[in-house]
Each structure stands twice: as C-alpha cells, then as structure tokens.
Amino acid sequence: MALLRWSDQADLFRPFEEMEREMDRLRREMDRLFAGFRGIRPLRMGVFPLLNVSEDKDNLYVRAELPGIQASDLDISVEGDTLTLRGERKSHEAEENVSYHRREREFGRFRRSLTLPTRIDVDKVEAVFQNGILKITLPKAEEVRPKQIAVKTV
Fold first, then answer.
1. 82-89/108-115 β-pairing
2. DSSP string, 59-76
3. d(CA 98, CA 81)
4. How far apart are CA 123 and CA 114, in angstroms?
5. Does the domain at residues 47-92+106-144 carry the CATH identifier 2.60.40.790?
6. φ and ψ of 75, to 5 deg
7. Residue 10: which pLDDT band, with cuts at 50, 70 and 90?
C-alpha cells in the first residue's frame, strides 16, 4: 500500500471542487436567465385548445377553451381510450387594403387528442358548448366505477 502525503490528497479532490464551483456558476447563470421570463406567458402555447380534465366517482369531465368557434365547426369523437376534438376557427377578417401592426389570433383547422385515464361508456357521452367553453361529460364504464362492498358478520 502506497502512502500519500496530506498535500497530495488535497490535490486528488481539486478537480471535483472545480467542477462543483463550475456547476454552481452555471446554475446561477440559468437562474438569472430564467428570472427574466417569470410572469411572461408565451404568446404561442403550441397546444390548442387548452383544456382541463377532471373526474368524480361517476364521470370524467373535459373542458376546452374554444373562443371564436361555432359549435357547428366542432367534431368530437371517442375511439377506444382516445378522445379527439377537431374543428376550425374561421377568419372573420375580410378587410381589404388593411395592413396589420400585430396579428396574434390564429385561424384554421385544429385537432387535439388525449388518452382518457379510464374506460368510459361511449353511448352516454354528452357535450355542451357555451360562451366559448366546451364541456364534455364522459360517464365511466360501469365496470370501473367504485363499488361499495358490504361487510357481513358471521
């Protein structure tokens, strides 16, 4: 077994200490970089429509934000464990000789699919569209609903 002097052992850990300092510096730089973006919501989320999925003991609920869309332009389907929303947001702007300073509203066809977390009874699915919010009620299949088991005493 070779003996190392104390000063040689200190050099053994120096690369790790330098790496730790460099990681700290990198973390501080990343924190500083992202601190400038806090509170700023990106203009394009990349996902449309935005939606919430919730559930109670009997149903799943999907609520989707669809402003500027007519109910007649929506197509909702359930296939297996996948819910698909399709539609089109039509442009209402037919103005000629107009130049835009800013044009953030998007138009055109969209499609969003999501995997449902449980089996549902497809025949009882309902959808209501009101004030730009689409609410889809998806009743859970009978076999996945919680069942109360009575305890018998002997």
1. antiparallel
2. EEEEEEE-TT--GGGEEE
3. 46
4. 19
5. yes
6. -135, 120
7. low
Residues 73-92 pLDDT 10s: 999 999 989 999 999 988 77
Rounded distance between C-alpha atoms, residue 117 and residue 141, angstroms: 12
pLDDT at 38 over 90: no
Residue 22: is its pLDDT beyond 80?
Answer: yes
pLDDT band at 130 (very low <50, low <70, confident <90, very high): very high
How is residue 21 written in tokens?
Answer: 């300092």
- What would you report as the CA-atom Rg of the chain, rounded to the nearest whole angstrom? 28
CA 82/CA 67 separation, integer angstroms = 23
CA angle 82, 52, 125 (to 5 degrees): 50
3-state DSSP call for residue 48? coil
Instruction: Determine the 3-state secondary structure of 78 from DSSP.
Output: strand
Query: Rounded to an integer, what is the distance from CA 21 to the centroid of its chain?
Result: 36
Cα 116 to Cα 110: distance, rounded to the nearest angstrom:
19
Contact 116, 97 (CB under 8 A): no
Q: What letter does residue 141 receive in the DSSP assignment?
A: P
Residue with tokens 């209402």: 92
